[in-house]
Amino acid sequence: MLRLYDSRLSGNAWKVRILLTQLGLPFERVTLDLAKGATSDPAFRAKSRFARVPVLELEDGRTIVESAAIMFYLAEGTPLLPDDRFLRAEVMSWLTFEQADLLRALALPRFYHLRGIGDQMAGRIADFQEAAYPALQKAEAWLSTHDWLVDERYTIADIGLFGYVSMAHQGGYEMQRFPSIDAWIARVKAQPGWVSLVEEAKA
Amino acid sequence: MLRLYDSRLSGNAWKVRILLTQLGLPFERVTLDLAKGATSDPAFRAKSRFARVPVLELEDGRTIVESAAIMFYLAEGTPLLPDDRFLRAEVMSWLTFEQADLLRALALPRFYHLRGIGDQMAGRIADFQEAAYPALQKAEAWLSTHDWLVDERYTIADIGLFGYVSMAHQGGYEMQRFPSIDAWIARVKAQPGWVSLVEEAKA
């Protein structure tokens, strides 16, 4: 069975979990406790050359790291990744844009706030926001005229952008500036098989 | 003919130019003057949804943005991108690692120094270096036991990591800390068809 190493709050690992669920692939979930330094453990480092989650372990024991690489691997041959060479490049362009321009700038302010050190890190958060607001505006512009990022249908590009963008407000981002992103987030969440980051409390 | 929009000093565009040359693909080069705001021009924005270089324009007028996406597109079916699904994921993992962990942290200090505002931006440069040194150490660890990043041969993963890493010293990084990276940079530069960022002065 596939095995996914994740952590409770990693947005990158969440993307992979959404995809695995939507593809109907059974997997074992191994949730690491990052606060206890689980990613520094030599046994984990042997699976993850970048010492972080997510890691997908295949049935033969080989591992794949980096959420975009894992998603491309898993989605191959499914409706969530186009076969067409140009459209695949489109998917990859959104995935690398998110990793280069948004990932750290959205994830780290969220992390600082969750750890209660948002005030202490205010200067760094301001630097991140200065860089990320224009990038969010580019996504907003695209989504103001498109329902989805690529080929007018839901693909792994949407999952890749969705992860941290949907949690950006937790890092102090004023997401009400971006109504088209907001509407797209609702469309992503409405996709069959979508799963929340943390399980909702049972009623 | 393929057309590459680049700028004189963009490392991401340089990667594409190295690849096009090594693949023997004829292309027209359109070098934008970023200081004059060329990427804000509406005609260019129509080609580049993220308003930056590189952009690859295909013969039918469609454009591909983001260096990793362009490289995957161009290298398809060539020795510079493995056919095997797992190895392709390995390539992508290095390309996204570079974009997420190194690109901005290496490129922006370099930019500040080239513009003569390195002292003014010292605090921000220190933040970038704090984040990027551990990432460089991960690449160093890999390259201390491997000649190349993927499949023990030269691929677009190497080109992707090479671009900004080879220029990191221009941003004040002490690259003598990383002897295995240094040796790998020499191997990349020795590949047939490699081209320098700026043409060397003719003797």
Automatic annotation (TrEMBL), chains A, B:
Keyword vocabulary terms for this entry: Transferase
Top-rank lineage group of the source organism: Bacteria
Name of the protein described by the UniProt record: Glutathione S-transferase
GO terms of molecular function: transferase activity
Lineage: Bacteria, Pseudomonadati, Pseudomonadota, Alphaproteobacteria, Hyphomicrobiales
InterPro entries: Glutathione-S-Trfase_C-like, Glutathione-S-Trfase_C_sf, Glutathione_S-Trfase, Glutathione_S-Trfase_N, GST_C, Thioredoxin-like_sf
Pfam family, one: GST_N_3
GST C-terminal domain ranges (all copies): 84-203
Domain GST N-terminal as annotated: residue spans: 1-82
